[in-house]
Amino acid sequence: KAGVTQTPRYLIKTRGQQVTLSCSPISGHRSVSWYQQTPGQGLQFLFEYFSETQRNKGNFPGRFSGRQFSNSRSEMNVSTLELGDSALYLCASTSNSGGPYNEQFFGPGTRLTVL
Amino acid sequence: GNSVTQMEGPVTLSEEAFLTINCTYTATGYPSLFWYVQYPGEGLQLLLKATKADDKGSNKGFEATYRKETTSFHLEKGSVQVSDSAVYFCALSEGGGGADGLTFGKGTHLIIQP
């Protein structure tokens, strides 16, 4: 089974631009979560989507948004980029099979650099 | 809100040494607890988990016990190898199903010297 894939792996943008990152979950997984990883703040939860609906959102400004498509692929968008948005953005997919815990499988991440 | 505290390191050990990475948490309910590992240039991999008090998670020689009374989930390994060099993250989830997201500690950079 293929793992979680994220594209692109690396991005360089300038302040004020916007960016879209893509995540393809493991086949059959319907839940996709996004995280931001920075040296200063560590790993922080951005949002989670299940069956095209956002179920939960972390404490990030409205410039950060996302969506999920009917095939469970997800995109996140950051508008009006700031230097502080430079980070590794990780996507995780979950099977939501109904057990006590549904493991989150992480992709390799997209490294975004804002100049 | 929820939080996870762990030693940040770097922690440098010699091969075959005993490893302990401390992790304590604050949560409003009864969370599930996890250790994730991140190797250079890669995403996170689940190392082990425990979903209720007194559960012991184990994998690849690593162990951690869910201690509700001390709100801790310390990671241990009896004899580390150079290949264990990585960043280790302690995390919790209240929902368990992914929707609530994971709350992570800052990560502990482990360096094992031959």
Describe the structure.
- The complex is a heterodimer of chains A (115) and B (114).
- Chain A is built from no helices and eleven strands.
- Chain A is globular and about 35 Å long.
- Chain A is 0% helix and 53% strand.
- Chain A has strands spanning 5-7, 10-13, 19-24, 31-38, 42-50, 53-57, 64-68, 74-78, 87-94, 104-106, 110-114.
- Chain A has 115 residues and is mostly beta strands.
- In chain A, strands 2, 4, 5, 6, 9, 10 and 11 form a seven-stranded mixed sheet that branches. A four-stranded antiparallel sheet of chain A has the order 1-3-8-7, with no helix packed on it.
- With 114 residues, chain B is mainly beta.
- Chain B has no helices and twelve strands.
- In chain B, the strands form three sheets. In chain B, strands 2, 5, 6, 10, 11 and 12 form a six-stranded mixed sheet that branches. A four-stranded antiparallel sheet of chain B has the order 3-9-8-7, with no helix packed on it.
- Chain B is globular.
- The mean pLDDT of chain B is 92.
Mean pLDDT score of chain B: 92
Please give the share of residues in helix of chain B: under 10%
Distance between the termini of chain B: 41 Å
Give the N-terminus to C-terminus distance of chain A in angstroms. 37 Å
Shape of chain A: globular
The number of distinct helices of chain A, counting runs of at least 4 residues, comes to 0
Helical content class of chain A:
under 10%
Label the structural class of chain A.
mainly beta
Largest interface: A-B, 27 and 25 residues
Classification by helices and strands of chain B: mainly beta
Biggest sheet descriptor of chain A: 7 strands, mixed
Order of secondary-structure elements of chain A:
EEEEEEEEEEE
Low-confidence stretches of chain A: none
Number of separate strands of chain A? 11
**Order of helix and strand elements from N to C terminus of chain B:** EEEEEEEEEEEE
User: What spatial form of chain B do the alpha-carbon principal axes imply?
Assistant: globular
> What's the total count of β strands of chain B?
12
Strand content of chain B: over 45%
